[in-house]
Amino acid sequence: MKKISIEYLKNEDFVDYIDGDLFLIEDVNKLPSIQDNAIEVESIVVIFGISGEGQVTMNNQVYRLKRRQLLMGMPRSIYSHYSPLTSDFKVKIIGISTRSFNSSIFMTKNIWKNFYFLINNPIIEIEENDVALLMHYYEIANLKMHQEKSPFHQAIMTSLLHSVIFELLAITDRVEKIEFEEKNSITQSEVLFRRFVELLAENEGKVRSVTDYAEMLYVTPKYLSSVVKQVCGRTALDLIHETTTHAIVRQLKYTDKSIKEIANEMSFPSLSFFGKFVKTQLGVSPKKFRKGQ
Length: 293
Fold this sequence. Notes:
The chain is α+β, with helices and mostly antiparallel strands. The protein folds into 2 domains: 2-182, Jelly Rolls; 188-290, Orthogonal Bundle (Arc Repressor Mutant, subunit A). The protein has 11 helices and 11 strands. α1 crosses α4 and α2 (112-120) crosses α4. The longest helix has 30 residues, at 153-182. The mean pLDDT is 83.
């Protein structure tokens, strides 16, 4: 299986715009066939239905996509098929690096319920005013893409991208509330997973043991791990470490606290242990990350 990163797409002629954190594809007809060779895309992918109807197979699930619908693919999703079902099928595809997405959501604490919803509901139907708003963002981005680049071009595109991310999360939040109210029953596994991610948000990365969360939820660590894997396809420890990493980055980027103060606040046993954790998760030391790597 071929793994696709934003860096990999830099030399592909079907990509209309690309930088280190973003790519845009306007014409789905230019995409190479993936029928015989599934691909794993490292970035978040948003496929926005403009007209007609088509279908996309993501993570072995077939999704039909039409106007006023968004298909949200989480990082490392596997795409194995796409095809138009009508001759007027048109979409816009936006790829967002996990780095840029994370730098946006680091500014918001209680984001996990949105992830839970998107994992289980990749297709979102949006309203006409949402379509108009997203198209305005796209038109502004498209205008900037074709202008001569200034020293502030990257910062402008990043700001636009972050705005789009927050708009998508706002849409997700609204749709999630409606669907949760309309749903008559949810499974025991879904209830446990929802409570788990709520606890993740409440503890803000300060609790990092699957066993501790299992005790809070009155289940065994093995059962909790099994349910989390079943519901979202990722391990409980992955989500715990990701929550902790989000909290650390938020502290490093948006506070003036010393690294030692952050380590203490995040309940790390020592500054050395804190440094090793950050290096493992972010690839650089806390000091280098704070300085912009």
